[in-house]
Amino acid sequence: MKKDPANKAPTSEQEPYYEEALNEMNRSEERRPGIYAKAFADSLGDEKKIDSLYLEYLAQSLMEKAERIEAKRIKARRIELERIAEEERIAEVERIAEEERNEAERIAREKRIDLERSEELERIEMVEEERIEAKRIAEVRRGDKKFKYKLGFITIFIAILFVYFSA
User: Fold this and answer.
1) Are 17 and 59 in contact (CB under 8 A)?
2) Dihedral angle sign, alpha carbons of residues 157, 161, 162, 163
3) Which of 58, 60, 69, 123 has its CA 20 to 30 A from that of 33?
4) Which domain holds residue 102?
C-alpha cells in the first residue's frame, strides 16, 4: 500500500499554522474567497472535501506569509548588518586618515624644530665667527699699537742719537 503524501502529518514547524488555520475557520463562517475557490475547484464539488482542502490551503497560505515575513526580516537584518559594516568601514577609514594626518603633522613639527635648531646653530656659529674675528682684529690692533710704540721709541731713540752725534 502506497502512502499518500497528502496524509502526511505536519511537522512541528508546520503545526502552529494548521492550528491558526483551524482557529480562523472556527471563529468565522466567512472564508477567504481565493483560497475557498481553489478548495472548491480541487474538491470537484465534493462538499465533504472542501473544508479539509480549505484548511490545508489556508495553513499553507499562512506558512507562505510567515516565510515572506521571515524573508523580509532576514533581508532587513542583512541590510542593517551591511549598513553597520559600512559605517564601521567608514569609521576605520576616517580613523586611519586621522592617524595619517596626525603623523604628517608630527613629521612637519619635527622638521620645523630641526630647521629652527639648524638656524639656531648657524646663528650661534655666525656669532662665534664674529667673536673670533673681533678678537683677531683686536689682537691685530694691539699688535699695531705695540708696533707704533716700538716705532715711536725707535724714532725718539734715533732722534736722540742724531742730536747726540750732531752736536
Assistant:
1) yes
2) positive
3) 69
4) 11-166
pLDDT averaged over the chain? 89
Cell numbers given for 95: 580613523
Buried b (16+ CB within 10 A) or exposed e, 148-160: eeeeeeeeeeeee
More confident residue, 147 or 156: 156
Residue partners of 50: CB distance under 8 A and separation at least 6 = 36, 39, 40, 43
Q: Is residue 6 part of a domain?
A: no
Q: Is the pLDDT of residue 108 over 80?
A: yes
- 3 occurs within a structural domain: no
Domain count, the chain: 1
118: its cell numbers: 639648524
Residue 55 falls within a domain, yes or no? yes
Does residue 2 carry a pLDDT above 50?
no
2 located within any domain: no
Distance set, CA 70 to CA 11, 19, 74, 104, 142 (Å): 18, 19, 6, 50, 106
62 contact partners, CB below 8 Å, separation of at least 6:
17, 20, 21
Q: Which residues of 126-140 are buried (b: 16+ CB within 10 A; e: fewer)?
A: eeeeeeeeeeeeeee
Q: Cα-atom radius of gyration of the chain, to the nearest Å?
A: 56
- In this prediction, residues 35-57 reach a mean pLDDT of 91
